[in-house]
Design the sequence.
């Protein structure tokens, strides 16, 4: 039976090997970290992952869990077109997890931070009944910021990558769905190892260099395409028409679900970007420009709420109105 490490021992262990960029004047070890004065406006975001709600330790490695905890925060910075700078971590630890586990968790976290150019500048450890990892992340903005409230009628709506894969991976891991071979591996990987679209977000923000401009609009897909699109529509005071046949599905998704869009629209954890730009940009040109596959899925309209049109839209249940999949998600994925 492994013993929980003491708080001070754990903090010392996990921070002793960290290196920092010049933007960090003082890293872990004092009451606060000290960061150099930023050159631009700053972004700050926070997210928690709780055992039994967002993850299960049997599903993947401790390293992957640490990396994923950072990735979901990085995705919020990506959604604003920002550059991530530094983070602090709160670990709520429960009995039964040994020093080796936390070493591996932090190795994954530190590796992901390194890859994203983020300094891990401090942390806190507390006892709890369930393991939870909370990360607060600071970033800098470029010349302009991507916001949810910037969508305009007539905009084309695009998404990066494919949607619904992670929701299927989650169901496979939870024993609610069966898949085999490369399909199974791909879908599980999409859930366990999300990659924030940082470069794409930064390049998208540069498409409008005017500092005061609030365009393009963007959001990252954490709760599911339909719900996250709803946030953009609500904040921008607009509506949308989404083309069912244009939703980008991976071959693995199709292998399991065919053209059933329920999880592509209602499943979460994709960490892709949804963004709205003025007409005139082809998906091919945006794919080249952003360095990631991009698909056009619809148009921003006057009015409010989203409508699914064409394809198998009529087969969708429940009726695809704004937030229509909330209940499904609440009962099924949590
Ligand atoms: Mg977000």
Sequence:
């Amino acid at each position: 039976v492994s013993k929980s490490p003491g708080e001070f021992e754990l903090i010392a262990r996990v921070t002793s090997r960290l290196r920092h960029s010049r933007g960090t004047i003082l890293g872990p070890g004092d009451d606060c970290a000290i960061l150099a004065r930023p050159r631009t406006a700053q972004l700050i975001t926070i997210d928690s992952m709780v055992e039994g709600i967002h993850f299960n330790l049997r599903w993947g490695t401790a390293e992957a869990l640490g990396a994923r905890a950072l990735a979901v925060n990085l995705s919020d910075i990506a959604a604003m077109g920002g550059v991530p700078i530094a983070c602090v971590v709160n670990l709520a630890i429960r009995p039964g997890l040994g020093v080796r586990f936390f070493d591996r968790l932090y190795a994954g976290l530190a590796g992901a931070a390194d890859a994203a150019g983020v300094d891990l500048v401090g942390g806190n450890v507390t006892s709890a009944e369930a393991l939870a990892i909370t990360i607060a992340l600071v970033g800098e903005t470029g010349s302009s910021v991507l916001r949810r409230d910037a969508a305009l009628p007539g905009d084309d709506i695009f998404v990066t990558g494919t949607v619904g894969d992670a929701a299927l991976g989650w169901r496979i891991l939870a024993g609610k769905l069966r898949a085999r071979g490369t399909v199974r591996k791909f879908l599980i990987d999409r859930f366990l190892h999300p990659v924030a679209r940082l470069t794409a977000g930064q390049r998208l923000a540069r498409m409008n260099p005017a500092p005061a401009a609030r365009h393009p609009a963007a959001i990252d897909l954490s709760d599911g395409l339909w719900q996250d699109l709803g946030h953009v529509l609500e904040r921008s005071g607009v509506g949308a028409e989404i083309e069912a046949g244009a939703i980008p599905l991976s071959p693995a998704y199709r292998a399991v679900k065919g053209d059933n869009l329920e999880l592509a629209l209602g499943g979460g954890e994709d960490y892709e970007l949804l963004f709205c730009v003025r007409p005139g940009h082809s998906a091919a040109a945006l794919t080249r420009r952003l360095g990631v596959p991009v698909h056009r899925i619809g148009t921003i309209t006057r009015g409010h709420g989203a409508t699914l049109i064409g394809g198998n839209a009529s087969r969708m249940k429940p009726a695809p109105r704004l937030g229509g999949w909330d209940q499904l998600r609440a009962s099924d994925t949590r």
The longest strand covers residues 83-93. The CA atoms of residues 4 and 310 lie 55 Å apart.
